[in-house]
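Shape matters. As here.
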Amino acid sequence: MTDGPFRNAELPSRWKRYGQELVSDAASLEERTMHACHSMVGDVDMKAFSPVFDELKTYAERAQMDLDPVTMVETIFENHVPSPLADTLQRHLIANLRDQISPDRALSEALETTAKEWIGTTKNRLDEECIRARELGDMSREDYRKGIERNRETFAAIKSSELSDALATCNKRAFRQAVQKNGSVDVGPEE
């Protein structure tokens, strides 16, 4: 891929396509939002995240409560491959458990908070890519303004509940169909 403002960025091709959509007047907010969600889920190593989340879910659904759920949860995380997303989930989950929230509710709320934080972090990372593209001359001043504004709109439109559902089900293809449908060449106006 040689086109678009992120052509020189060290990003996966799906994010480079998103960069093209930021400066293209042909891409709608909905298309950019679905593409951003698909790209975010694509960044997750589900083979690492799924086992830890499944074990946490099994633990949280147990009828019997432990006297010290924080220690149990820390042990679960220690027994799995670390990842940035799992680290964020761990931080929020342990904070919720220390607030004496039931493990099931603590996990649900921690996942939602993790998704919200992930949205913000990704938005900021792509803002930085826009800045870098402008500095490299890959993005004009007008495209930069458009890209920053559209990136803000896109990430504001992402529903954290949809991202947390994709994580909870470990569904890497949660947004793929919407992206493929919107990206199809044969899609035309409805009659």
About this structure: Residues 35 and 179 are 6 Å apart (CA to CA).
